[in-house]
Design goal:
Helix content: 25-40%
Structural class: alpha/beta
Shape: globular
Strand content: 5-15%
CATH architecture: Alpha-Beta Barrel
Radius of gyration: 17 Å
Number of strands: 11
Distance between the termini: 19 Å
CATH class: Alpha Beta
Order of helices and strands: EHEHHEHEHEEEEEHHEHHE
CATH superfamily: Glycoside hydrolase/deacetylase
Number of domains: 1
């Protein structure tokens, strides 16, 4: 059986990019944190099945709840970086991006006492407009990135990029792109997040098995702690599209996640390096 990569983007419900215009960074302290309890539920779910994963942790969360980072690491999971303030990479200058990422990486390493080797951009925002970020990641000492989504999307995507693990040209940096399946000749995003909540689980399982058995490759699965939390506060003044994407089928994610862990084998990304 092929072993796939399981990843968790540790951010809270009010920190998603879709809510950025409603909940500014400087207002984050006004919202109750739910990420601690939700992440512990995930840790318990993983522990019950002997599963280990990569946790891409937001620096702001690490600063507020350092003991949660230590708890994740103590359970044998990989600690990786999700930036500090969840700003889209292409909305930052190179200097801003470098400082935001350095701050988050330093925090995580100080908390765990171990080097942080992996990075994932907020909302997969390393695109054609922000490829300059890859050189900065190498400069900061990261061994791999998992930010590039090889699809068309209104917020992210680099559709012409490779679908599976590759090394960036002229850089000492490995890319683990977010997984897609080929369905009727088209790339379909099926490996996590809103796509996991949108499609019936039977379709997701079929598509993921096609990657494993049809192409003989591992896939990268991702989700967020807020996606197992149907009782989270509802945001006001957000658009219909954002509302649909964020709140769709939150009450089904935990059960589907358990099915996924029973149907496939997983490991952290760092186990491959």
């Amino acid at each position: 059986m092929i072993t796939n990569y399981l990843t968790v983007d540790v951010e809270d419900y009010f920190q998603v990019s879709a809510f950025e215009k409603v909940v500014g960074f400087h207002n984050w302290d006004k919202y109750p944190l739910r990420v601690e309890n939700n992440t512990r539920k995930i840790l318990d779910c993983f522990a019950a099945r002997g599963v280990r994963a990569t946790f891409f942790i937001l620096g702001w969360i690490a600063e507020k709840i350092p003991f949660l980072v230590r708890e994740i690491a103590g359970a044998g999971h990989e600690i990786a970086c999700h930036g500090y303030s969840h700003r889209l990479v292409y909305n930052q200058s190179p200097a801003e991006f470098k400082e935001d990422t350095r701050k988050a990486k330093d925090l995580l390493e100080q908390i765990t006492g171990s080097p942080v080797r992996g990075y994932r951009a907020p909302s997969y925002s390393i695109t054609a407009k922000s490829l300059w970020a890859l050189e900065i990641l190498e400069e900061l000492g990261f061994a791999y990135d998992s930010s590039i989504f090889p699809i068309h999307h209104d917020r992210y995507g680099l559709p012409g990029s490779p679908r599976f693990r590759y090394r960036h040209p002229r850089l000492n940096l490995v890319e683990y792109p977010i997984s897609t399946a080929i369905i009727m000749g088209r790339k379909v995003p099926i490996a996590g997040g809103g796509y996991f909540r949108l499609f019936p689980y039977s379709f997701t399982r079929m598509a993921l098995k096609r990657i494993n058995t049809g192409e003989g490759r591992p896939f990268i699965f991702y989700f967020h702690p807020w996606e197992i939390d149907p009782d989270q506060p509802r945001m006001k003044k957000i658009g219909l599209v954002s509302r649909f994407r964020h709140y769709l089928n939150l009450d089904r994610t935990a059960v589907r996640l358990e099915q996924l862990l029973n149907d496939f084998s997983f490991q952290p990304i760092s186990f491959d390096l």
